[in-house]
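Input.
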Amino acid sequence: MQLQNQIINKLSSALTPAHLEVVNESGNHNVPAGSESHFKVTMVTDAFEGESLVKRHQRLYQLLAEELKSGVHALAMHLYTPAEWREKEGAAPLSPPCMGGEKG
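Output.
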């Protein structure tokens, strides 16, 4: 949970989100119990106004570069402006089930 909190703190400080959810989805994958390697980030912030989806993803990759180098294997990102979030009725897509890595 330490890495999850680190991600939350970094994103909150940098982008002042109206909504931020960081879910550790590692338990859905073929990794040891207690791992922090697979995360889903759902964020709503005015900071994304006028930015393409690619630019939003690049911004998060830059902010979380340290975490991505030191253990985060997968990062699902659902990044919205407040207007886009209202259109989605406040719901991000579900993550697909894990295929078991090399075992799938």
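The domain at 2-91 is CATH 3.30.300.90 (GMP Synthetase; Chain A, domain 3).
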